Amino acid sequence: MIATRTAGFDYDRALNTTAAWALALVWFAPLIYAVWTAFHPTEFSTRFVLTAPLTLENFVAAWNAAPFARYFLNTVLLVTSILIGQFVLCTLAAFAFARFEFRGRDTVFVLVLLQLLVMPDILIVENYRTMRFLGLLDTILAIGLPYMASAFGIFLLRQTFKTIPKELDDAARVEGAGFFTILMKVYVPLAKPTYLAYGLVSVSHHWNNFLWPLIVTNSVETRPVTVGLSVFSSTDQGIDWAIITAATLMTSGPLLIAFLLFQRQFVQSFMRAGIK
Amino acid sequence: MGSLSNRTWIHAWLFLSPAMILLIAFTHYPAAVTLFHSFFSTPRGKRPAKFVGLENYETMLADSTFWTVLGNNLWYALGTIPLSIGIAIAMALWVDSKLKGRAFVRMAYFTPTVLPLIAVANIWMFFYTPGFGLIDQIRIPLGFSQQNWLGDPDAALNAVIVVAIWKEAGFFMIFYLAALQTIPTSLREAAAIEGAGRWYFFRRVTFPLLMPTTLFVSVNAVINSFRLVDHIFVMTEGGPDNASSLLLFYIYETSFRFWDTAYASTLTVALLILLFAVAIGQFLLLDKRVHYR
């Protein structure tokens, strides 16, 4: 904003600051509220008394009411396998698009970009059929497989690879290195910031994903935390909000803590990942 | 076409094929097969699927639920997209300026983005609880009567829209923040010397320069408005009487609750057509109206 230097009180600035803060509080309110409810006994769910006793009972009750440890393990396995798959597949494809001249390259690239529009989330009917055909229903692999060839990842890495000067791989070629060696020794190390950014986006996206895992899983051994939470909060008779908010916080906890710790990197990575 | 270009071709496809196989298996193939299955009946028990031509489409056009859900989805898009983009621009301008406690404000705006929608929908549901929830706790002392936000057909969809805006505005803010930082400071200085006010500067300089970002964000927002249905599962289950059901949620119900997969395929084709219309619209807009980098 333009620095307006006026003598005395700057009304414009004060107004903007107030509005910005008011909006921030509205945006933050649900989280503050969840924290309040989860850490206090049920009778204080809607009574905001500063002297209300703090308790961890709700977390204990939620933890014991559903196999959250298992759900967490599933989510961690899911997110890691998707990330590894994406890194490997997208790196290879992005390298081909960035560095090889071959017939039909642009057409194939358009076919890749189509996935930005038609995400696997939308094609649930046929993808479910495919998973049944492959005998993968109710496995963690089935949740991750449709997302591993990610158009977004291919696009992002291709952009990064294109900025790497070709002289570098010419030099490596003179030394007798093959394409794969050049990729691993030159391109991947230079694209580290992009991998970090993409990794954060991918982990948070798949930690939060719900619809496809809901469809493909039906047992405790495979359900990720999001599906576990939805099962938990819908089967609970006589809704105890304190326990549900505790479970809610647990589900989003690891990601939330990671976000609070690495806030700057998170925001910057989303920023970098978003620039087309 | 020598042997050299053949070798390149083989190399390229060695690198491409793992990703392309999965991409075709889970995007192109299912899209094509969805279209194919939409011309058949749903196999039930011993009765196999048989070709029914356009019958499913006729059913769809006569299905009042389909029209309700489509109307809902358009209203949902219309409600979430302009508001979340407007709020995102305001957020980005604030966070980009010198603001007291900027780090906290930025974090507060962005937090909903990293939280699972399915989890925060729980919190919002609590807010909306009639009489007991936070919103009514504030309203009732002010003399309003108790309101069942999620149970009232007139209010349910809007209640869901509010959650979507809250979830997305901070995400879109990031793109605007990135765009704002590419605007040269010399422009601001020049405008300040000319004595241009802040609002004038925003309207004539900043906002036009943000157009490519707005286009990018709005396409994302449109796709999301058809794709993100997580909160419907927790908050309303599409009810009351389909008042808050969205297209993808209806597809889910048709396929995985009523097991009418052929009809679900037909609905998916309708959704795909909508998405392609968006893409074509974007392409035309991009060509004519926006000076893209």
UniProtKB/TrEMBL annotation, chain A:
Domain (ABC transmembrane type-1) ranges: 72-262
Keywords from the UniProt entry: Cell membrane, Membrane, Transmembrane, Transmembrane helix, Transport
Family the UniProt entry places it in: Belongs to the binding-protein-dependent transport system permease family.
Identification of the protein by name: Carbohydrate ABC transporter permease
Pfam assignment, any one: BPD_transp_1
Gene3D superfamilies per the UniProt record, alphabetical: MetI-like
InterPro entries: MetI-like, MetI-like_sf
Location(s) in or outside the cell: Cell membrane
Protein topology in the membrane: Multi-pass membrane protein
Cross-referenced PANTHER family: ABC TRANSPORTER PERMEASE PROTEIN MG189-RELATED-RELATED (PTHR43744), LACTOSE TRANSPORT SYSTEM PERMEASE PROTEIN LACG (PTHR43744:SF3)
PROSITE patterns (UniProt xref): ABC_TM1
Source organism phylogeny: Bacteria, Pseudomonadati, Pseudomonadota, Alphaproteobacteria, Rhodospirillales
GO CC annotation: plasma membrane
Membrane-crossing segments per the record: 18-36, 72-96, 108-125, 131-157, 177-198, 241-262
Annotated organism of origin: Nisaea acidiphila
Swiss-Prot/TrEMBL GO biological process terms: transmembrane transport
From TrEMBL, chain B:
GO biological process, one term: transmembrane transport
PROSITE patterns membership: ABC_TM1
InterPro entries reported in the protein's UniProt record: ABC_transporter_permease, MetI-like, MetI-like_sf
Principal localisation: membrane
Domain of life: Bacteria
CDD domains found in the cross-reference section: TM_PBP2
Keywords, comma-separated and alphabetical: Cell membrane, Membrane, Transmembrane, Transmembrane helix, Transport
Membrane topology: Multi-pass membrane protein
GO-annotated cellular components: plasma membrane
Domain ABC transmembrane type-1: from-to ranges: 70-280
PANTHER family in alphabetical order: ABC TRANSPORTER PERMEASE PROTEIN, INNER MEMBRANE ABC TRANSPORTER PERMEASE PROTEIN YCJO
Annotated family: Belongs to the binding-protein-dependent transport system permease family.
Name of the featured protein: Sugar ABC transporter permease
Organism per entry: Nisaea acidiphila
Lineage: Bacteria, Pseudomonadati, Pseudomonadota, Alphaproteobacteria, Rhodospirillales
